[in-house]
């Protein structure tokens, strides 16, 4: 077995233990392991690919700097997301505004599926406005609506529906009670549904206006 394969087979917790002993290769494996997953989460959270990349790098720098604080056996993934989320929130507050949405890298593998699953949940009570959307349209619509949510709500939705974390893990990451996670997620989903309806209604009204105008024009000809 090569040294590279040996690192790959180590758990996150074993890698952190190696990092505590000064083996920097363990950090490289953690970066590689979480590169797509954590970056994708940060990009959706802040809405800016460049800022997300900066936060991603800062997260692992902080992980390295705080390696001596790691408690052996503690789950690494929630701790990593805690560091990343805190850095992202600080960055957005420093910016003093929401980052503009960027859709140029939106359609990564699984993105449309995630958006579709979330939209399916939101549309359960009223399917009519959403049933004609293509997968690409769903992904773009959900992404735009997510970026209009307040930061705390957005983080809960992303952690629960895009990263598939359990409620207790989300509570640990965000430093809030379990009950707050559930209530915040409920409010976030309700707000997302309202935002999606608002975004679709203008298009629906425009289509109806066009149909009405067409009928009137045919009526004049008759």
Description:
The protein has 222 residues and is mainly alpha-helical. The protein has 2 domains: 102 residues, RNA polymerase sigma factor, region 2, helix turn helix motif (Rna Polymerase Sigma Factor, Chain: A), CATH 1.10.1740; 93 residues, Winged helix-like DNA-binding domain superfamily/Winged helix DNA-binding domain (Arc Repressor Mutant, subunit A). Helices cover 73% and strands 0% of the residues. The chain is built from 10 helices and no strands. Helix 4 packs across helix 5 and helix 9 packs across helix 10. The longest helix is centred in the C-terminal third of the chain and has 44 residues. The termini are far apart. About 12% of the residues have low confidence.
